[in-house]
Amino acid sequence: MNVRRTPEVLIVGAGLVGLSTAIALRQTGIDVRVVERHPGTSIQPKARRFNFRTMEVFRSQGIAQEVAEAAKGLADHQGMRAGRTLVDAEPLPAPPHIDFRELLELSPEQSCLVAQDALEPVLLRLARERGATVDFDTEVTGLAPGADEVVVRLREQELTVPYVIGADGARSAVRELLGITRSGAGELSRAVTVDFDADLGDVTRGREFNLCQVETPGAPGAFASVDGHHRWLFYTGEILPTDAPAERWATVLRTAIGKDDIDIHVRSVQAWRPAVLVADRFSVGRVFLAGDAAHVMPPFAALGANTGIQDGANLAWKLAMVLRGEAGPALLDTYHEERHPAGTYAAEQSAARTGGLREMAEPKDGLAHPFALVTGYRYASGALVDDGAGPQPMDRLSLAGRSGTRVPHVWLADGRSTLDICGRGFGLLTGPSGGPWLAAAGAAGLPAAQVANYCVDSGALLVRPDGIVAWSAPDASAAERLTDVLDGLLHRS
Ligand SMILES: Cc1cc2nc3c(=O)[nH]c(=O)nc-3n(C[C@H](O)[C@H](O)[C@H](O)COP(=O)(O)OP(=O)(O)OC[C@H]3O[C@@H](n4cnc5c(N)ncnc54)[C@H](O)[C@@H]3O)c2cc1C
After folding, report:
1. Which residue minimizes the CA distance to atom 15 of ligand 1?
2. Closest ligand 1 atom to 173 CA
3. 193 lines ligand 1 (CB under 6 A)
4. pLDDT value at position 2?
5. CATH class for domain 3-66+115-182+279-360?
6. Whole-angstrom Cα distance, residue 209 to residue 475?
7. 447 has pLDDT over 90
8. Using a 6 Å cutoff on CB, does residue 140 contact ligand 1?
9. Which InterPro entries match (predicted)?
């Protein structure tokens, strides 16, 4: 048997989560190998909406511009429509309780639309350019976690690695091999996606859409733009057997479009089941679950991949610091402590949005405000100093620099965002009266900045590499505790 000891982290699965986590690890200099059982990246468009928090993660990895470039084709396809057919559909008004102009103030990044099968090759290229090894046609078939390493079986080969991340999707072999159970409402409904090509220019020019709900009897569903020109998805129910002849599906599509003279090429018809299932553990010893392996959720809030990419961002810096000896191994326990409740919340909120586009525009009791859903969640864990502020309201976005929340964004005088303060490690933000903090940060080797008109004056925000406030210190008298606090957060003995 061929046994070798590389790399430092093995990622199982080269989907959006595996690839983006590989980029995050390379950003910190960690040696990473990704193995993928398929011969290439996904051929299904599936995820298309990448929210502004995910774009902030990409920004921290230096790849937001490349992702935005890949999303250019759908830049004008942001609106929602609904009607009897695609031809009749009218724009849906923006939900009255949401002011999208606020987004410009909330984040240095904007969300974007890019189909998963277009984004994955971009992430693959960037991961390889940054030094990750990505091997296709390589399937993990066995796993033996030990106290000091994990032995991974890749068909005929065994590999011994310090850490493994299972980013291997909803049917995760890593999760199964570890015997991790899942909880949640389970399958909610039955859905069918038809992936097709058609020149719909006459119907959609000047009437571009992200999603368009059609309410015609016999062909109810929603169209989604894939490339903005010729390729589309139609989400529907089990109105025909998935293996029905392509021409029968084309007839359904023409009914839903509202024109019977359109040439249609059906690429595929796939049945799938929206579900809520969350792994009961996101880690066992040296093995971690991320993305759909950890949590599956219905796509109606466009959170599945976004939540998974944020799992990777949360885990990467922790693994890097432990591997470099800058943090104790107990820091890795905080991955489950933080991401399990966040993933469960995202899945439950996604299930609560399982209505049509018209209903989704209405405010509803128990639904988080969309901006809060994207970036308002507050962690509680051993990688934070609890400021005793209690749970975060989710009916609105209120970012005030509390410990466990995403650091509030404002532009710094040098053109950077407060989110850019960290780089690869921790960073510190203080206000105009925070001189002692600058000295303490300098002594601790942390980048720091003073910000006017911010949520700190003589206090400070200690910011983690994933943009989360680790410590919200009320005043300058606490500056002398900075090193002790860092030691505690990082579980350094
Ligand atoms: C219709 C639809 C629309 C969606 N829209 C959105 C959206 O707009 N926004 C959003 O955020 N999410 C959306 N999602 C969800 C999103 O597609 C998933 O959450 C995302 O693909 C999960 O990524 P992943 O990398 O965790 O898993 P996957 O994409 O499933 O990737 C896992 C990879 O692991 C590989 N693998 C599995 N087992 C092994 C093994 N043993 N060895 C090696 N490799 C293995 C698989 O081949 C696969 O390539 C949507 C989903 C659907 C169905």
Report:
1. 304
2. 41
3. yes
4. 45
5. alpha beta
6. 49
7. yes
8. yes
9. FAD-bd, FAD/NAD-bd_sf, RIFMO-like
Q: What are phi and psi of 386, to 5 degrees?
A: -70, 125
Residue spans in the chain of domains classed CATH 3.40.30.120: 378-489
Indicate the CATH number of 378-489 among 3.40.50.10730, 3.40.1370.10, 3.40.50.2300, 3.40.30.120. Answer: 3.40.30.120
pLDDT in tens, 403-433: 999 999 999 999 999 999 987 899 999 999 9
Instruction: Tell me, in angstroms, the distance from the centre of ligand 1 to residue 20's CA.
Output: 12
DSSP one-letter string for 136-162:
SS--EEEEEE-SS-EEEEETTEEEEES
State which ligand 1 atom lies nearest to the alpha carbon of 54.
11
pLDDT greater at residue 363 or residue 427: 427
Length of the chain: 493
Give the model's confidence band at 4: pLDDT under 50 very low, under 70 low, under 90 confident, else very high.
very low
Confidence band (pLDDT; 50, 70, 90) for 98? confident
Mean pLDDT of 192-207: 93
Residues 6+ apart with CB under 8 A from 305: 16, 17, 46, 47, 50, 54, 116, 291
Percent of the chain exceeding pLDDT 70 equals 98
Query: Looking at domain 72-113+190-272, which of 1.10.8.60, 1.20.120.910, 3.20.20.140, 3.30.9.10 is its CATH number?
Result: 3.30.9.10
> Can you point out the beta strands (E) in 109-249?
112-113, 133-135, 140-145, 150-154, 157-161, 163-166, 182-187, 191-197, 211-214, 221-225, 231-236
Q: Whose CA is nearest to atom 38 of ligand 1?
A: 168
